[in-house]
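Entry for the shared binder. Reason: the reviewer on the internal report wants the predicted structure included alongside the sequence.
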Amino acid sequence: MRHADQSREPDELPALLERVSPDLARVLYRFRIPAQDSDDLLQELVVQFLENRRRVESPEAWLVGTFKFRCALYWRRRRRNLVEAIDGAILDELAGGSPARQEHDDLSRDLSRAIDELSERCRSFIRLRYGLGYENPEVAERLGYSKTGIRKISSRCLDALTDEILSIEPAMEAFENA
């Protein structure tokens, strides 16, 4: 026996996706998801829908709402991965890692330039945390912040540093391509 809402049946999935594709395209555009990643997100959405379709009351609304949520998660993951990569690069740089001399000099210059553009609070945090190797509670004590609030400050400072580094990269590429 078929359900009253035929879109819950697997053979009705293409028609359902056809109906919501303009809405999904708007979500991709609004979240500025790169083309190389949009297909993966859409495939993950379809798999998730197929797993949950029997419990979904309004398939169109569920697909669009879930897709918005998945796109927001996409950017959170990307940002977290970038912050972690930069975090590692900062540690390597401040610890005196061993990349090639020219690469080391370039990284050091770009990193110094990015740190110099940060607020005094963030510059102080980064120097204490990564330059001198203090743990977050020690940084909080030295800078006069609460030990519970330093995590948020840490995140904001690393986000600001990430933004600065990202703003340097396009400028450097433009300079190198000129």
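Summary line for the report: The chain has seven helices and no strands.
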